Amino acid sequence: MRQAHHPELGEITLTDVMAALGDPIRVGLVRVLADGRERGWGELLAPVAKSTLSHHLRVLRDAGLTRTRQEGTRCFVVLRREDLRTRFPGLLDAVLAAAETDDVGRQVGLKAAPHAAA
């Protein structure tokens, strides 16, 4: 399997980041990932087909918002919070605050963890 391309810090452009954030599903994914934890793609819950979710995750990665790691057949994604803060100070915090206020991306979340047997 080929390795995903991640833009270097200096290659991340404001227009690419803003274009990637122009979709409510992608804003929702950023909101979910804003806790700083790496998430398996299978943990993410969105009202779209798996292929469409994969497309949204690729758009975020290509814009420099996320980093994807593959481990065997599983893929994991994490928000590049520090890189974004370095490149565009305050932008991510402003986007997250506005998304929270306007409830953008609320339809995206995490799948419930299976309950342990008692």
Automatic annotation (TrEMBL):
Pfam families: HTH_20. It comes from the Bacteria. InterPro entries: ArsR-like_HTH (IPR011991), HTH_ArsR_DNA-bd_dom (IPR001845), HTH_MetalResp_TranReg (IPR051081), WH-like_DNA-bd_sf (IPR036388), WH_DNA-bd_sf (IPR036390). PROSITE patterns: HTH_ARSR_2. Residues 6-99 form the HTH arsR-type domain. Keywords: DNA-binding, Transcription, Transcription regulation. CDD domains: HTH_ARSR. One of its GO terms (molecular function) is DNA binding. This is Transcriptional regulator. It comes from Planotetraspora phitsanulokensis.
